[in-house]
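Q: Could you write out the predicted structure for this multi-component system? I'm mainly interested in how the pieces pack against one another.
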Amino acid sequence: MLIARVIGELVATQKHPSHEGRKLLLVQPLNLDGTDRGEAVVAMDAVDAGVGDKVLLATEGFSAMTSVGRPNSPIDMSVIGFIDHIELVPGVH
Amino acid sequence: MYFGRVVGRVWCTVKNPQMVGQRLLVVQPLSPELENRGKPIVCTDCVGAGTGELVYWVRGKEASFPFLPQEPPVDTTVVGIVDSVHLQPVHLQRAAEPVTAAPAEHRLELPLRPEPPERANARKPSRKD
C-alpha cells in the first residue's frame, strides 16, 4: 500500500461493466516528505475520497478488486483508506 | 490503472489461439496534464477504443479478466475510454499538507477538508506503540 494524494477525477462513459457506479480518481503516490513518488495513476474509489485528500492506495489486483466489491474484474488499483494522521520517528524521511 | 492515449494499432496474423479476435492498440502513457510519460506499449482492448482517444488501462493478471471465461495471455488491457479529466488546481496541490508534520509555524494552513471530530473514547497514542 502507498500513501498518496488525490489530484483529480476521470470521467469515462465507455468502460468495462464492472467499473460502473464507482468513481475513478487520479492519484499521485507520495514520499514520506510529501514529494511526488513516481507517476500519477488511476485508481477506483472504495471510500468516497475527493480531490485533495490524502489516501491509502492499494496497488495490487486482489486487494483492489475485493475492496470495491468486484471480484474477477479488471481493477489493479484502488483507494482503500482516508489518512487522518501519520506519526513517524523523528528524523525518518 | 494507468492513463494514456491510443496512438496506433497492431495486427498479428500468427498468434496464440486465445488471442484470436483481440484488438491490439498502441498506447502512449500520459501524465494527468496529457504530457507523454515513458514509452508506448501494446494493449488489448475490451471497450472498442480507437486511435487518438484518451483511455485508461490495467496491468497484470487483471488484464485478462474482461475476456473470462477465456484467459488470453495478455498483461495490459484498455478498460475504459476517458471523456474528461478534472484536475485539482496546481496552487492547491502545493498547499496540501506534507506527510511529515512540519513545525506548526512553517505549515501552510489551508484545510482542504475539515478535521474529523475528536472521539470521546479515542485511544491516545502512547510511548509503547
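A: Regarding packing and overall arrangement: The longest helix of chain A spans residues 61-67.
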